[in-house]
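ENTRY TYPE: paired fold submission
RECORD: A
CONTENT: sequence, then structure tokens
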Amino acid sequence: MVVSAKPARIGILGDFNPDYHSHLATNASLQHAAQAVGRCVESEWIPTPSLLEPGSDNTLARFDGLWISPGSPYKSMAGMLAGIERARLGNWPLIAT
């Protein structure tokens, strides 16, 4: 299968914890899906407190799509809600699990 030269960039809104099976599965599922369609994917976890900081819109804008991670409670529920609101108002591709 041919792999696209430009990777898809996915921002995962959430507080990564390697002890959460769902977080490890999120990373694995992105790689599995990318391989299935012959595309490279780069993902980055975006901590919820950072979504309240000035310039967080610029952080989110670097990505082709956003994924709201499982794993509540979040370090900052206000940050998570702010990230979701920005994604929806900005019409950015968004999925939540």
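RECORD: B
CONTENT: sequence, then structure tokens
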Amino acid sequence: MEKLDFTISVLGKRTVRSPISLSKAMGDYIANYTDDSQCVRYDIETVSGGGAWSSGRGKLMEKAGAREQIYFESAKVHAGIVSCGGLCPGLNDVIRAIVMCLWYHYGVRRISGIRYGYRGFLSEFGLPVMELTPEKVLDIHQKGGTILGSSRGYGDRVGEIADSLEQMNINILFTIGGDGTQKGALNISQEIKNRGLKIAIVGVPKTIDNDLSFVEKSFGFETAVSKAVDAVAAAHVEAESAINGVGIVKVMGRQSGFIAAHTALAINDVNYVLIPEVPFDLDGENGLLSHLGRRFESRHHAVILVAEGAGQELMESRGRVDASGNKKLSDIGVFLKDKISAYFKAKGIEINMRYIDPSYMIRGMPANSNDSIYCARLGTNAVHAAMAGKTELLVSLVNNRFVHVPIQMAVSRKNYVDPDGELWRSVVEATGQPRLMKN
């Protein structure tokens, strides 16, 4: 059994009355404060006759929300916001939500945007901070990207980052980013504690691949799927309109195939979905190429949807990594395009190939309505947590409830599509593809 501990760290006793006026009563038509005793069970599945669930406090997830007593005095707060890693729909929405909540609900007037990720803390780059006000962020949610800029790496320079936080007198830092960003945030927080400083570190999980653990859905994911659907629709039209037409669409998903899986289910025009979690062969009787040939004989066209991390074992690995420490992937889309073309050319079979890679178009899009709502609630709940003196946590959605997740837990492992689970079973049923293309 996996050891779970969702205990949230705090900076100290909360002695300040919150400036947010809510209720503690039911039925008075006024929203209620959230109490630390309100929790959500993470694992809601059981088996008949399986015995009682353990309800130890460390196994329950603390509900997010505004607390009646808070830790920080608003007039003394200097908040910082940093966005790191690759772009993702909704970044500006989160920044806007944090600024608006700090300013209008808590009366915080010192909010600094750190430019271009963690490198914005380092003196060698000479990047000035951006003063953030409601006027500055008023309409940024209508635009893609991040008003602060973003970059990978430098999260390992914890001593220098802690120095900058101390010099700027920042006592709340919001880190918007994925696995690498939050690992950096955790290390920075530990350095801060070693120095005896009281700085709250609160993360908002950003990973378009939806692969952070204990995060039901990462922001930008729905937008990514909706835009990927458009690409698949175009590939399907092209493939269906040609003799032995092949449409290949490559989507994001370095280690997890959630975007590919959900896109296939959303449009139902995909014939083969290839994801990192499920290996496949190209050659042989049960390989992709043979199945594609049989598909041409019966239907004369095919659409292949592939996650960027799929099939890496089939290609030559260069062993390089990016600034965040992620392995640099070989291009599976181009690889499949070339291999499929060569295979059918050798057989003297005419095919018409169309290859679409919408990755960067998707990353730079503004969030759709659902993602925008989600971002607003994530950002607001991050502020509530930080003002209450909670630290080393992410705001997450679990079992349709907003909760606090220790960063240590969230970065302890990745979230993957379970090849034995319901999602992948639905994909196989929707596409009609072989359950496993291995010889």
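NOTES ON RECORD B: The chain has a mean pLDDT of 93. The chain is about 30% helix and 15% strand.
STATUS: closed
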